[in-house]
## 1
Amino acid sequence: MANFMPRGATTKSKREVKDTRKPSYKIYILDTSTSMLGTIPVLDGGDEIKTVRKIDELNRGVELSLKSLKEFEEKNVLYKIFYQIIELNSYGKALFSEFVPVASANDKIAFQADGVTCLENSLNTCLTYLDPKYMPGNKRTIDIFLFSDGCPTDVDGYRKIRSEYLKTLELFDHELQVRGLAPYVTKHAIFIGDDESGEETLRSFADEGNFYLVKDTESIADKLVFATIKSQKRQSSRKLTACDKEEGDILDSTVEVRQIDITKCLGESCGLCAKSCPVGAISQSGGIVSIAPDLCVGCGICSEDCPADAVYLMELLGM
C-alpha cells in the first residue's frame, strides 16, 4: 500500500531551530581556601560514618549540582541555563572567562584548596559578571550561591570585625540596586562549621529562607545540590509579571506558543506537526491534535509543515 501523503504536504527540509529559551544565570562563590583541606564525618548511606576531605565533598557537590541543572534544562524548555564559578579565596578568580552554558559542562571540576577566604575580592569578581556584557538581554533570573566553612578574612588572612563584613555585604546589595538587578537576584548561602562570625556573615548574605547550615555528619555535596534544585523549583514555578515601559527589554509579560485550529486540522490522518516538533509538545488523542503550552517554545516548525494551515501563534499572558 502506498504511503498516504495529505494534499498540499511537502517534503521540504527542516530549517534550523532557533533557541527561544530565556537565559537563567547561576553564580557559585565557593570557599576553596586551605581550611577546606580539613576533614569532616559524613553519614554514608545507612548508619556508617566515614571521614572525607571538605574540598572533595565540595567538588562532588559541584559536579552533582551541574548535573541537576542539565537535567532541569532538558525537561523545562523555557530556560537555557548558564553558570559561573568564583573562588572565595584571596585570589577571587572566576573559573571561566564568561558564563558557560550548562549543557556544555563536560569537564570534571576539581578545586585545589589554597589561599584565604577574602569576601571582598570574590564579591567584586561576582559584580564583574553581573553586567550586560556578560548577561545580554535578560536580568530576570539570577541565582547566587555563597559557600564557606569559616569566617572570611582580608587578603592577608586576618579577621575583621563583624561590622566590616556587613559593610561589604551592604555595598554589594547597593550595587545590585544601582544596576537595577535586585528584583532579579536570589541569594543562597551554605555554611559548614561552628564559627559564629562566619555563620552570621553568610546568614546576612542569604535571602530569607535560603540559608543552609551543614550539620554534623551531613553531606556538603547534598546541601549544595539541595540548594541548587530548590532554586530551580522556585524558578520554574515563578510567574512572569507585567513590566513598565522602561523595563520592556528586560522582562517579558507574555510567552509565544503555537495552538491548533481543530476546524482546519486533518487530525490523525496527517500527524506531520507532531513528527516535526523538536520538543515533543504536540500529541494526538481521540482524533484531536493539541499542543502543550508548557512545552511549546514557539519555534514555528509545525506551522511551516502543516498542510492545512491549522497552526497559529498565540500569546499567553502572565505565563
## 2
Amino acid sequence: MSKKIQFIEYPKCSTCQKAKKWLEGQRLEFEDRNIKEEPPTAEELKSWYKASGLPLKKFFNTSGLLYKEMGLKDKLPGMSEEEQIRLLSSDGMLVKRPIVLGEDFVLVGFKETEWNNTMG
C-alpha cells in the first residue's frame, strides 16, 4: 500500500485548483493542507528542499504580493540558506504552491508534464 500524497495548497490559488483537479483526475489519494492556515515549519522546508533537488529560490512565491512588498528579489541573493528558510516558514504566502510530497519526491509548482512523469 502506497503512502498517501500530501498536497499543500492555497485554496484560492488558481494554479492550486488546476493541480487539485489533475490529482483527482488521476484518482490519486491525497491529503490536503492549507498553506496559509498551516504554514510549513523551517524543519519541513529544509527537508523538502533537500529532497526536491531544487535551488531554494524555487520555493519562493515570486509572483506573490508579499514577496514584492518585501523586495525579496533584491534581498534573497544576500541571505543565507538558513535565513531564507526562516523567512519562508514565517508566512505560508511566501511559499510557492502547490507543493506535492510523496514518499520519494517533492514537486513545487504545477507543471503537468513533470507531474505526469512523476505520478502519472
## 3
Amino acid sequence: MKTVNMHEAKTNLSRLVAAAASGEGFIIARAGKPLVKVEAIVPEGSKRLGFLSGQGAVPDDFDRMGAEEIAEAFLG
C-alpha cells in the first residue's frame, strides 16, 4: 500500500481519493509515521468478485456436463 506524506496528500487529494475509490488505498504519514489508512467503502450487501476463491473446484468436463441430457431434451 502506498504511503504519502501529509503535504502530498493535501496537494493531490482528489487524485488520491479517486485511486482509493478504485481499490488502490493509501496511508497518510506525518514525519514518516503512519497516521491513517484510506480505503474505499464497500457498500454493505454488495457482492465482491472472488469472495469464494479457492473454496471450490470446477470439474475438468464442466463444459460438457449434461450434454447428453440437453441433446435428448432438444432432439428427442
